[in-house]
Design a protein that fits this description.
The structure is a single chain. By secondary structure, the protein is an alpha/beta fold. The chain has a single domain, classed as Mannitol-specific EII, Chain A, CATH 3.40.930.10. The protein is built from 5 helices and 5 strands; from the N terminus they run βααββββααα. A hairpin with a 2-residue loop joins strand 2 and strand 3.
């Protein structure tokens, strides 16, 4: 699977989040703006972290928020929120988080492939710093390897 769509409407630069819940909510709102998910998907992503801990903080400064495919997911999609001030998720090694990716996938079988496609981008250890420093949605899309539409 290739990377899910990342339209400009799913990107928020230098956002303010008081805590990890509001950071995840911002990524869910971006997915809803782009048409990938319903507004309630953000609550599902937050519940996953409450139930399973901060496993979504996959690298220093980077969280990959997601929930299971279900009625809140409308289309495959990706969102990216860069934070003005990093927030702590409670991860022992990878806090604080500066970049939150939101992932919505419609088919259960495609979920792991989508996570792997996203993770491949971060094989380049400078990608997180580049995203955190990005000033435009087009710059974020370029770093993620998607062509702006």
């Amino acid at each position: 699977m290739s990377l899910p769509p990342l339209p400009e409407s799913a990107i928020e630069i230098s956002a303010f989040a008081a805590d990890w819940r509001s950071a995840v909510a911002l990524s869910g709102e971006a997915l809803a703006r782009s048409g990938a998910a319903k507004p309630g998907y953000a609550d599902e992503m937050i519940r996953m972290i409450e139930d399973h801990g901060p496993y979504i903080v996959i690298a220093p400064g980077l969280a990959l928020a997601h929930a299971r495919p279900g009625p809140q997911v409308l289309n495959d999609g990706l969102s990216i929120v860069t934070l003005k001030h990093p927030v702590r998720f409670g991860h022992a090694h990878n806090d604080p988080v500066r970049v939150v990716l939101g992932l919505a996938i419609t088919e259960p079988g495609a979920h792991l492939a989508a996570v792997a496609a996203v993770a491949n981008i971060f094989n380049d250890s400078s990608a997180i710093d580049q995203l955190a420093a990005a000033e435009t949605a087009a710059e974020v899309q370029r770093i993620m390897g998607v062509i702006p539409s």
